[in-house]
């Protein structure tokens, strides 16, 4: 019977073309929107991860308790050895060392006397190693306002507003006045290689980005780092994987733990950012579920109307002696075929369009000009495993339920009333 029904749907396109088109479009929109929402919600998470949080973060136990203060007296020592261990034991991650520091920036005049001073927040990372991905990870080249990225020791980037407020310029010397890892006073000279714009007032007011080796010398932190951050190699945060890596690492250092022993924290457990990660995860599903339900109702009605429009055909089939139950079952089987075929076609097109947006993105750099460090310059979709099967909810299940609901009338139909309808 299935083969017979399949041939009937192919030969009589008036029964299959429109339902197949409606189901395909509905499923395509469902898949594409889910991938778009997942990518859009994940962009903010990735920006925070790249700038400061990482997918996982390794700090000392004492530093984690005072993470808001950025106290380098509690920094990781022998961090290069720890980096080698992480690279060997957790090769599924990419690792980078960072130093967070603060201090006073002094801008001298032509005679070497202080012209202006201002408090600064500093971020040190590997900017000079040819294999380093740090500059690309933070989109520094796209946020550059003047000058160039550091290419030699002793060069730093200043935020554009901070540079102007100090009255200094690209190529000028500045002095960092801060505290060393041991708490003593640190004074170190830098050269301004360029200026960048963060797009956030707090950062633009006084930010410095320097190479990590320069800051280690300036703050007397040899082979030390404030934190080591790790990124999953697929480029997206996955909470289960991050938590698993953190648990494996912490188990390695569980015995003999002291305040300077390393501790790995996944992004979902890093204070306010962790709360946003969990919130984004839940809300992406809430929004997707609402749209899936709405699309399910549309396709449900499409199946219902499709069944109602065929009452004349059903009446003829009953009039020539076909059993009601047989007619009902055949209609359900036809809707299963149409729903399945439409879901496959719609899923294919939905994944295709989502892939295009994931790969090429929707360029919003015009709106985000000067904010590439802290805001994405393009909106990208993200294809995840649920995108391969969630289309069956509105495409197959709702279509079949609509046909089943409309077909209930067939089982209750009276033969005497049927002949009156046929005469009319």
Would you kindly provide a written description of the structure presented here, covering whatever features stand out?
With 424 residues, the chain is α+β, with helices and mostly antiparallel strands. 51% of the residues lie in helices and 20% in strands. The protein has 14 helices and 14 strands. The protein has helices at 2-11, 13-53, 61-65, 79-89, 134-137, 160-166, 201-205, 212-218, 239-252, 271-309, 311-319, 324-360, 392-411, 415-423, and strands spanning 56-60, 76-77, 93-108, 114-125, 144-147, 155-159, 173-179, 185-196, 207-211, 224-225, 227-232, 262-266, 362-363, 378-379. The strands form three sheets. It has a six-stranded mixed beta barrel. The protein has a two-stranded antiparallel ribbon with strand order 2-10. Strands 13-14 form a two-stranded antiparallel ribbon. The longest helix has 41 residues, at 13-53. The protein is elongated. The two termini are 31 Å apart.
* Strand arrangement across the biggest beta sheet: 3-4-9-6-8-7
Strand content: 15-25%
Oligomer: single chain
Gyration radius, in Å: 31 Å
Shape: elongated
Order of helices and strands: HHEHEHEEHEEHEEHEHEEHEHHHEEHH
Structural class: alpha+beta
| Distance, first to last CA | 31 Å
Number of helices: 14
**Average pLDDT metric:** 79
Please tag this protein with its features.
424 residues, alpha+beta, six-stranded mixed beta barrel, two-stranded antiparallel sheet, 14 helices, 14 strands, 51% helix, 20% strand, elongated
